Amino acid sequence: MAIKLSQLAERTGCRMNGSDCLIENVADIHHAEQGQLAFVYNPKYLDAINLSKASAIIIKEEWLSKCNKPALISDNPRLAFAKVASMLNPTVNPHSGVLKTACIADDVTIPDSVSIAENVVICTGVKLGKNVVISAGVVISENVAIENNVYIHPNVSVGKGSKIGHNCNIYSGVVIGADGFGYVRDGDSYLKVPQLGNVTIGSNVDIGANTTIDRGALLDTIIHDGVKLDNQIQVAHNVEIGENTVISACAAIGGSAKIGKNCLIGGAVGIRDNVEITDNVVITGRTFVTSSIKESGSYSSSMLLDRTKNWKKNVIRLKHLDDMAKRLKVLENKVCKSNPGSD
Amino acid sequence: MAIKLSQLAERTGCRMNGSDCLIENVADIHHAEQGQLAFVYNPKYLDAINLSKASAIIIKEEWLSKCNKPALISDNPRLAFAKVASMLNPTVNPHSGVLKTACIADDVTIPDSVSIAENVVICTGVKLGKNVVISAGVVISENVAIENNVYIHPNVSVGKGSKIGHNCNIYSGVVIGADGFGYVRDGDSYLKVPQLGNVTIGSNVDIGANTTIDRGALLDTIIHDGVKLDNQIQVAHNVEIGENTVISACAAIGGSAKIGKNCLIGGAVGIRDNVEITDNVVITGRTFVTSSIKESGSYSSSMLLDRTKNWKKNVIRLKHLDDMAKRLKVLENKVCKSNPGSD
Amino acid sequence: MAIKLSQLAERTGCRMNGSDCLIENVADIHHAEQGQLAFVYNPKYLDAINLSKASAIIIKEEWLSKCNKPALISDNPRLAFAKVASMLNPTVNPHSGVLKTACIADDVTIPDSVSIAENVVICTGVKLGKNVVISAGVVISENVAIENNVYIHPNVSVGKGSKIGHNCNIYSGVVIGADGFGYVRDGDSYLKVPQLGNVTIGSNVDIGANTTIDRGALLDTIIHDGVKLDNQIQVAHNVEIGENTVISACAAIGGSAKIGKNCLIGGAVGIRDNVEITDNVVITGRTFVTSSIKESGSYSSSMLLDRTKNWKKNVIRLKHLDDMAKRLKVLENKVCKSNPGSD
Asked: What is the ipTM of this complex?
């Protein structure tokens, strides 16, 4: 596929500067070849433009004097680049149809536009929308409902009764709808609490590889429209994640936690069960959310990196910090008493 | 399925209060409909009883005056609820039998009560107990032994020689018996140490989605009876987990760690390799267990959440805490010397 | 298999002490039986030698007086043991050939020495080297290239265009080549950035169960020769991991992080995106690498375990550490002023 720069400008709402040319694909500015389009979002890369073999650059208006090539001018070069990259690399679904090694329950209707790959298992009561792609080795259990344009990658397991909205991408190894982790102590051992809720996933949701989303205990676990989940995230039972919230890899979200809309949650963040987080909250990487967050803003709790030698000296003192604080208070009282006028 | 409230009382050892009625299922008190049974375990939800459409409530004796509905009276409403929920929602195994897409080694005997789903692979030497359910896409390698009433969900991988006791539930994406992570430096690179042990899992063990349990190096990795493991837990080689210990999601347990009985281990806890933890230990969420625990009790090591702005000011000081402690000591000496009588 | 002790000595470059004997396998010193070979790498286990039923011991020269059995003498008993264990327990590949339930694209050539198990899916354009083993349920997408002697365990998913070098072991549930996590805010929601790079894995790389390695955005994610990755590690897009670096379980590596050669990275370590770590760096367990590391050495940032009761008192003070530091400075100034000569 190749598109004229002028057409890309028109389709992305950018202004074109310089002569028109044919763009075959996007590329990193340092590795671009002729026929490729690169972008600069940070002025420190402006010097790379002259050295680049790219045929054109996406750039901000204010940097145009540094650019000796045809350009697309955008206030948000990263966004313009993403749009161009999508145009030049559209998702191509596999041929529609059902491969003969797929096992599909008799009562399931497969729309003509759907693609079902090798060894897929689809159980009774499943509903599939249009243009759904189900890749090899995926198991869709009873009564799952999947809307249009959902792409499920290989070896995903979707538990019974789960609902998946439009335009979702579900990557390999994801497990949706395993039982929530609910037990009650019963004498010497534990009794499992039946997990009777389901998982409800909205539209435009992406779920990264090996992420797990448990079914609810009585009510559903709910992932709202536009949520993006990275790899290896754990979403416990009855969690609710608000619209357009983005969560980076390896986050662990405890049972019944409620996360608001438009939050940005960093990698390996932990969220304690039953915590509530309001809208528009940023949580930096590796933070442990130990209490509810009622005001939007940025929150943290990780430690900073240090040489092990220094870290050892400091971290051991942490176990005596309360003692230090009390001793400091005692000293302040003494010094104030003896130097009343020196403040 | 519907059961009379009086029968549920009898079967759970609760006392019934008020008139009998037919109970179709359990529900959350805020969403219950007629014919459903809800429970209250916390007095803050007592006011919800009047508003609830539930036909009956499980409640403590002391709260009975707040309840205008038929009730089951229990000292432990949560436990009674779990029992009732199990009665009304018994696990229903798929039909027994072997689907024709399953691949089963010639020497394996499949009991009549066993259910083997689509695309299951069972290798030579495998032994299966009664009422075992093996879901679609599961791979059981050579010489695995599985006892009665084990339910294995889709896309699980069980490595050769693993032993699984009675009444276990193994959720999707679990990997049992991958090689432990053992290497020895050999010049510029690393030599793999053959992992010759197996994984031994007791009875009544649950293993959550995408959890991994490695085989031992020379001896076995051992999960004792009644252990409950949540999702995405990592159990390294030669770990031993004692009876009825419960571990929440995303815990990472290092090689040869020994965890006692009846422990409660929170989410995303890390346990350093070779650490020993005695019985009846509670470890709060996100703690890193850096040394052995010889006395039962509760242990922690995480940080508290803060505004990023405040956190930045404080966390940088942590790198100088040892210096602060020394300066505090110097000051104390000075002030004591100059104010010897003021203490 | 059984090998004479003298032959093992010759093949491992150890010196034999005492009489020759036939060794059937290796074992733990406390559990060894006759015909087995154990090792001692720590003098605290020397007393176990007399009690052991092992037929021979691998030991350091300096401890020989404590050993009443035939011995292999090595400066590095652990390495010698690993070598012997490998000789006595060679990896045995399944029979070569393609099982009839495998689904292989018409254009793929399968070398005679390759073993393809049940329900394997191999898509168009895939290249396979010699002695490759692909276990049940594995899905290899379009245009993947796999070199000689690669062993892929059950239920692995390899995304299109991935390259895997010689002698790699890839354990169950691994996902290679899922899309990187790249989005750009576009008004109220997020636009996905197409992930156009691949994953390139060198030779002698091991990848533990349920680990995920994302494809690059424009350029490739690169794992160099000799890297060993434990279970449940997350490797984001455009990460580069240098030769012979070893990473323990549950580490989370952010996008575009560059890790040097010969690093040792502990369990559950987090590495922030875009961070660079030089060669020969040790990072202790549970550390969060918040900034680049330019000098080799050991780095840390975790907290130490404490009783929850003590931890609560101390951790709350952490939120006021900056205030404490300022008050300490004020006190120092006061005391110095009032006791100028006492230092």
From this structure: 0.96
